[in-house]
Specification:
It contains nine helices and six strands, in the order ααββααβαβααββαα. The protein has 187 residues and is an alpha/beta fold. It has a single domain, classed as Uracil-DNA Glycosylase, subunit E (3-Layer(aba) Sandwich), CATH 3.40.470. The two termini are 18 Å apart. Bound molecules: uracil.
Length: 187
């Protein structure tokens, strides 16, 4: 079993490589911080969002804005908190004005997410939103597959709506709450 501290060191190295390798230089130029991800290096569950927003860019931490508050509530609802899980996004820099991530940006960051997964080896990958889901399963549609456990390589993967979707549509809020309950079965 790799020690938690050693896993954290390996994660820090991956973050340093993103900077050293000048990944997505245009995004790096406009972003204030790299938002690599954070949480428990021994977490069994990893949450993968789309890209940092304004608050994440300001702080360098994932999911600390309004969607992050809802994610915290969802975690509390199933008896977990941020210290039990690991949270990251596909893109590690904020796209200007929170525009959608471009395909080439997702492709550029993909190997670093793979490296994160190699270190963390979670039991469950939870994708948040369609961008994250489609990086793993390109043909999957969030509307029909949310809340239905999938297999991706050696991992169980649970597609969920992005918490931000709940801010716009009340029905989606309840759907996310219901889907979230499934996470408990993987603990
Ligand atoms: N949305 C994401 O997908 N990631 C974040 O870190 C914040 C909001």
């Amino acid at each position: 079993m790799v020690r938690k501290e050693d896993k954290q060191k390996q994660l820090d190295q991956i973050a340093a490589e993103i900077i050293k390798n000048n990944v997505c230089p245009d995004l790096a130029k406009t972003a204030k911080h790299l938002v690599f991800g954070e949480g428990n290096p021994n977490a069994k569950i990893i949450f993968i969002g789309e890209a940092p927003g304004r608050h994440e860019d300001e702080t360098g931490r994932p999911f600390v804005g309004v969607s992050g508050k809802f994610l915290d509530e969802l975690l509390t609802g199933i008896g977990l908190d941020r210290r039990d899980v690991y949270i990251t996004s596909i893109l590690k820099y904020r796209p200007p004005n929170n525009r959608d991530p471009k395909l080439e940006e997702k492709i550029e960051f993909w190997p670093y997410l793979q490296a994160q997964l190699e270190v963390l080896r979670p039991h469950l990958i939870v994708t948040l939103g369609r961008h994250s889901l489609n990086c793993f399963l390109p043909k999957a549609t969030i509307g029909t597959m949310h809340g239905q456990p999938q297999q991706w390589q050696s991992y169980a993967l649970l597609p969920l709506y992005h918490p931000a979707a709940a801010l716009y549509t009340r029905a989606v809020r309840q759907t996310i709450i219901d889907d979230f309950a499934l996470i408990k079965t993987f603990k």
